Amino acid sequence: MKKLKEKYFRELLPYSLIFLVIIATLYVQIAVHSTNMGADNYFHFARFYDIKAQLMTGKFNWFQTNFTFEQTGKVINALYGPLFAYLNGMLLLVAKTWYQYEVITNILLNFIAAIGMYKLAQKVKAPKNVSVILALLYINTGMIPSWIEGMNFSAWGGVFIPYLLIQVVNLLEDKEKPIHVVGLMTCISLIANTHLLSTLLIVLVLAPVVLISFIKTQDKKSFIIDLLKVAVGTIILTASVWGGLLVIYSQNTIATPYSVNMGMFTIHLSHFQAFRQFIFPSALLLFTGQFIYAVLHCKKQFNNFVVTFIGYCLLLIGSKWFLDWNWIQMKLPIISGIFQFPFRLTSVAYPLILLGLAYTFATNAKQKKSYKEWNYAVIFSIFVMVQACFSTYKVVLDTAQGQNGENSISLVTQMRYSPDYVKKWTQSQTGIFDLYENAQPDYLPLNKKMPSRVVVEKYRAILAVRKKYQHIVNRDGSLTLRWRAKKQKKVTLPLVMYKQSRLIVNGKKKNKINQNDIGAPIIVQKKGENTVNLKFMVPLWFNILLAINILGWIVLIGYYARKKYLIAKK
Fold this sequence. Notes:
The protein is an alpha+beta fold.
């Protein structure tokens, strides 16, 4: 019995240490009840609260946003991880304030990501202490801490990448069955249902690894069959994502996000920050040392070389030292509205390099080498990890004290309100929507090609009059506007219409509606009471696809539950 307790203690100790470090990092936020309002908070708060409102009222609409985003009917969640948005909406039913939501998601995100990296390091048989170091380093560098810093959703894509890399290890090492069908399609589907751009980035990893695995395998027929199974399973599990994109993009021209100066958002050195585009000189030195080691030992440690080489190349590509991103943006302007930030490559670059480090430490532990340089390497890794943890802690501390001007009250308050006021209105879930107007161009339908700046100007113009109208969300998921007019005249309504949108004006269905350049309907109001009803008409094939998608996830969850039960029974 004593030995059994000691075994459980040893198994739980790494997880306990990881959890305690996460709590210590977030301690200030938890203690003072601070709410971080970063660059992306309002956007995600609005889309999740819309789901919560749907769940509370039973007035569902998969495409049309009726409760938030100024109630314009803009399509958001159907194009941005819809199933994951519903999970967050459910979480908001439990969390009564944005503070509670942030604390819960901060802990969940960090713990799931850290456990994934820990298990990945253990997969290649790295020592447990090294695995914990790499796990803590991972959640405090790159995109993962960007959730705490500014609710950047790339962080959630990064959460599941270590789990995907476990399948990459299988592809490189498992000679009998390199493709673990269920595991691989689950990981790809989780990332695709969370953050679409992260899905595109993992292709940069999977494509060369799958090719290498195919060349190495003896049973190429089984390999191809398993690969097809993964493809079919992934298509089913991501149907709500690509189906929604197909519905909107097949008939509409959609505005892209703001174009940015890509050269300003490349990876570069910082002595104080380790998130997003910033990297410590010590971390770069550690990663470069790993790259050199992997190259020098490429013949004996081929798998180590593969993951490190891909990761380090992506790190260089996303940095300011290798490519001139301003020149690339000038030659291919469209890339700035789609990819936006070169530092996003850290989502896959960092976990790959950390996997390479796990391979390196595992190899030398296996050979029982006691060279001083390996002890020094562990100590240096601890030093980098502590630096990264402190960087995250400092962001939380500055935010709680109202000193982090870019993130604690940034775009929402524009430094016009005191931190105490921000804290007060974020205690409720609806106050933020009354305070801040969201005029981002993302996902607006365009009737002609325009720069993002012009799109925003036109959108702000229609939002300026929205308070003149009474907004009513109906049981069928449609949105009704009511207002009283003093005279008959043409008006532009604060609504957004897509090709699939239906508009009923004063009880009459209009087959052809005049619209401005961003899809806002232009009608002739009558004197007296006016009513319009907006509804997004979802095609039947999408509803069938959605049912198949949800059924697929139910079957997959059932599979894992049964597997867990059988293991526990043994």
